[in-house]
Structures are given as C-alpha cells and as structure tokens.
Amino acid sequence: VTSDLVITAQYVEESTDPAFVVSSVDAAKGATQVAVAVSIKNNPGFMDLILKISYDTDALQLTGVNAVSPFNSAPYSCTKPSNLKSGRAMIMWASNDVISNPTDGDLIVLVFAVLDTATAGNHFVTISCADGIGVDIDKDIYIPVADATGYINVK
Q1: Backbone angles phi, psi at 152, to 5 degrees
Q2: How far, in Å, are 44, 58, 91, 113 from residue 85 at the CA level?
Q3: Residue 31, Cα to own-chain centre: how many angstroms?
C-alpha cells in the first residue's frame, strides 16, 4: 500500500426474536408438486402454536401440508388442515410439556399446484400466528411473532 487506506465496517446485530421464514421458489404453470418450506428461527420452545396459511387462490391451490421432524411427533400433537381449497388453512401443534431444548428448522412443507390460468410473476404464500407462540400455556405466556411471506414465482 502506497497511500492511506480507509476501511469501514458496519455492525448489524441479528435479531434473537422468534421468526417464521417462508421459502420462495420458482415454478411453471401447471406444476403439481411445488414445495414451500416454512421454518422457525430463534425458537423459544412452544407448547401451543397455531399457524394460519393464506395464499393467492388466483394462481395456487394448496394440495398438501406436511409437518416435519421433530415437529411431527412426541412431544407434539399436530393437527393438519382438512380443507385445502379455501385459500386459507390452519395447522396446530400442542404439547403437554414445556420444551426445554427447542430447535430451529423446518416446521412444515406446503405443497401447491400452480393453476394453468396463473399469470407470470410472484404469487404470495403467507404464514401468520395471531395468538403468538405459546411457550407456557399454564402461565398464559405467549410471544408475539410477525407474519412471514414467501412467493411462488410463476415463469
């Protein structure tokens, strides 16, 4: 180096708040097995969780909801939606125990069909949790968490 050199850095603190993440994927019109993962980050451990699923019914049809390990077995009881064609669906988890070693990762995989009439571009898939994450339902402790949106980009 033959002259003064200035280096700058920006420190960005990563949030430790619980959050949901909805993946975004590309798909073609008429595709029948388009998987969209929904994951949890900074999981506080939950005893009670209700996720509402909404999506663009002009382009998408929900055909499957699959809970992912470890969220599909004990200590969790998982209830999947029975109506997959309404544009809205819910999935619920419950546990009798406070979770002492919570893990992050995929909660569910949503499977969509892309309608033949879908327009090109991004079509939303949104997860919301109006009641928050129930970390101790005996003490009525719920942690709020923001909605999360991903997209199926129809090519």
Answers
A1: -105, 115
A2: 32, 12, 14, 11
A3: 21
140, with CB counted inside 10 A (0-12, 13-18, 19+), is: exposed
The token pair that represents 64 in the structure block: 């499957």
CA 49 to each of CA 29, 31, 106, 140: distance values in angstroms, whole numbers, following the listed order: 33, 30, 14, 13
Q: What is the pLDDT of residues 81-110, one digit of tens each?
A: 888 877 889 999 998 887 778 889 999 999
21 DSSP 8-state letter: E
How far, in Å, CA of 67 to CA of 115, rounded?
24
pTM given for the model:
0.86
CB 135 within 8 A of CB 141: yes
